[in-house]
Amino acid sequence: MLVVTAGAAGWIVIQSIDSSAYHAEATFANTIGPYVVVYDTGQNQTLKLQCLALHYSVCTQRLPESVVSQLSAIHGIEAFYPLVINYTGYLRYNVTEQGQTCIGNVCTPTNQTIPRVITTWGSAVLNDSGFPTSLLVMTSGRVPMQGEAGYIISSSSIDPALNATNPAYLNKTFLWEFTAGKKVNSPIIPFNATFDGIFAQSPVIGGKFSGIEVLWNSQFLEHVLGSTLYNESFGGPGANYIIIKADNLSAIPSVVQQVNSILNSTGWTEFQPRYDQAFISSLQNLQSSSLSLSSLAGYISLASGLVAELALVYLTMKRRGWESGLLVSQGWTSGSISRFYFSYYLMVGVISYALAVLASLVVTQFYTFSVDAFGTVLAINATPEWTTLALAFPLVTCISIFGSVPILVRTRWRRLDALLREY
Amino acid sequence: MIVVFSISLVIGMVIPSIGYGLQLGLQSYMNTVFTYVVVANAGGCNEPGLDYCLNITTSLINNISSIRDIQNVYPVAVNQTDIIQLIAFNGSTVKDYHDFDSVVMGGPNGLPPDMVTTLCSKIIGNSGFLLDSALINQLPPSNNSLYTVCINCYPTGMQPFNASLEGTCAESSLLTNVDLIWNATFLQNVLGGESYRSSFDNSGFVLVKVDNVRNVEGVVKTLAGSLGQFGLTPIYDQANLLNAQSLESNLALPYTIIGGAAIAAGGLLMILVSYISTVRRRWESGLLETQGWSRKEIFRFQTVYLLLLSCASFTISMAFSFVVLPFLSTNLAIYGQIIAIKPSTNDLFYLIGLIFSVAVPFASSFLSYLSAGKHSLDQTLREN
């Protein structure tokens, strides 16, 4: 009974942990992988050149609310985050920069003072209708609190003015002047803000020309800009940057196809869905390869348990052949003997199964771990699946057939004295 | 008994090998996928029509190569390919140019061919190009996928030539903003050596392969520190690198538990079977005692007998794992590298198997030895 219990419990526990490890990988892949971002990819060269020439309104054109609404209704989407990316600028006066003055081929270094320099960054706000905090992976510092005059930057930003990785700039208060997305006639709203931390660069924060470099606290920005300007710049209807989370990795091609179809039919072809197809494919390959090996561990433990059970029953039965002879000598029929042994081994099997289930439930209770993915903690435990528990029952109770059938055959085929002589 | 011993040892050696193999497979996957860093200009150089600045000089590339923990550096030249569409306009034919940022595969400033093979639907032949799969709708209408193209049309006025679309490539963060890939040999033949060199001489970005996922953050920090002054920034999927590191460190536990549980189950099975066997054959030692054997001699005899069985089982299970495990392998092709996901035998597992093979016979014989001391000879013999 102990051996059968140990074998069954071992298989259930190994199968459950193995399955949980595989599911952890799958859940992880489906948490970090199925993101598609829709933005103006700069395919329109004229618009892109205008954008590079700092005509911000060109860079920040939005998809109208009707298109956003259609996109949000796409089949196979788990989450939909429409954002507005706009520019915030850091205004400096009388900046001295090193340049050179050339006469013919002879150049000499000179310092020049520029009276007004604006450095701009693609920015978004952090709130329920802005960039989702669930997708933030902070590498240092913290997220600005509600209403706090703070900002966080992407680790990919190397702008010297934002060079928060340089200790000289840490916790330094800057004077910000807001350009409200327009180069010409833009209102200048000066305010102070403090660097709070750095978030990890990631595909969901966008590409080179349409990415998010700075994230602001929305309440703070609304407070300093006023509702009208805030809505014109970071709120209001429409979106110029959309993060879509598909249901799972395999749903991505269908989602992308639907997005393309909507954008093409509405004439917004500058906007395109982008995702890391190669990465998704590698995640899917990893999952399928791991699955085959993971399943193998389960099959091997199952097969080993069964063979061990068979061998054990054989060992037990071989040395107890005389018992059936004794029962025959007492007038038992072969049918009643086989029923007796069937019931005996069935009882052993059922008790072993109950003990094995109990043992595995107790053991797996202590087994739990978690994985961080985009700030979400995925708790993984190894509670045995119903299918595993259900499958274990016939496997364990088949000991009754393994044990009783050979005894019945031996009782029928061997003479009574031969059976009794085995004692 | 040999069968049960062999099975127990196989459980104790093969299943931990599978768990260990899965763990190593995940590590290899991470060391392949998350160890690429793209170094490119942060923007602002305003090259006409290009998403990249062509200002990564050889000395900068040498600087990058000299950084510790970098395995490979691939400078990639970028240029503009125009696909020409002839459009009828007011009774005459005008040319419409469709711009694509293009790179070459192979050659000194080209993408590694293995990487292109993995990312794209086919290997580039000698007559065409591969296109980013997201841009397929932006190609003008064509006759059998044959297009008239020119490289760097505007500044140099290079002559157009014909080329066909041969396949598409997966979008990848490694090739951000790369639209089209040429075969270097093909372009050299079409453009001529001098024109080719002038078109694909300057690097637009550099692919940096770090040796190990744990060194990525350090390399990125060094790159940012040393190249920031030149307007270059290291771009990588930092969020997913951190996510994957969390997965790897947390999955180590279940794989270790699977191995530990299998070893424990195998060991327990061996001990129980040996015990049952010893208990049910106690009369044999009584019989030997009647023939004048001392208890120490019986103990030695039983130990040697069980040792022979367990050594034979150990050999069988070793042979099984050596023969069977190599067949349990699957390969992943990622970014031009082949990652094998397979059971990985570890000397420790064999050592544990050997320890079980030696310890269990001793333990069983010792139990039998102790048990014989508690029973008189007639009791022992009566147990038959």
Summarize the structure.
The complex is a heterodimer of chains A (423) and B (384). Helix content of chain A is 47%, strand content 25%.
What this model shows, in words?
The complex is a heterodimer of chains A (423) and B (384). With 423 residues, chain A is an alpha+beta fold. In chain A, 47% of the residues lie in helices and 25% in strands. In chain A, a hairpin with a 2-residue loop joins strand 12 and strand 13. The radius of gyration of chain A is 35 Å and the shape is elongated. About 5% of the residues of chain A have low confidence. With 384 residues, chain B is of the alpha+beta class. In chain B, the strands form three sheets. Chain B has a six-stranded mixed beta barrel with strand order 3-4-8-5-7-6. In chain B, a hairpin with a 2-residue loop joins strand 11 and strand 12. Chains A and B meet through helix 1, helix 2, strand 11, helix 8 and strand 12 of A and helix 1, strand 10, helix 8 and strand 11 of B.
List the helices and strands and how they pair.
The complex is a heterodimer of chains A (423) and B (384).
Chain A: H1 2-32, E1 35-40, H2 45-52, H3 56-59, H4 65-72, E2 77-83, E3 86-103, E4 106-126, E5 138-141, E6 150-154, E7 173-178, E8 189-199, E9 214-217, H5 218-225, H6 227-233, E10 241-246, H7 252-266, E11 271-274, H8 277-318, H9 321-329, H10 334-365, E12 368-373, E13 376-381, H11 386-397, H12 399-413, H13 416-421
Parallel strand pairs in A: 4-9, 6-8
Antiparallel strand pairs in A: 1-10, 1-11, 2-10, 3-4, 5-8, 6-9, 7-8, 12-13
Chain B: H1 2-33, E1 36-41, H2 58-65, E2 70-77, E3 79-89, E4 92-105, H3 113-119, E5 128-132, E6 146-151, H4 153-156, E7 161-169, E8 180-183, H5 184-191, H6 193-199, E9 203-210, H7 216-227, E10 232-235, H8 238-280, H9 282-290, H10 295-324, E11 330-334, E12 337-341, H11 347-374, H12 377-382
Parallel strand pairs in B: 4-8, 5-7
Antiparallel strand pairs in B: 1-9, 1-10, 2-9, 3-4, 3-6, 5-8, 6-7, 11-12
Helix pairs in contact in B: 1-8, 1-10, 1-11, 5-6, 8-11, 10-11
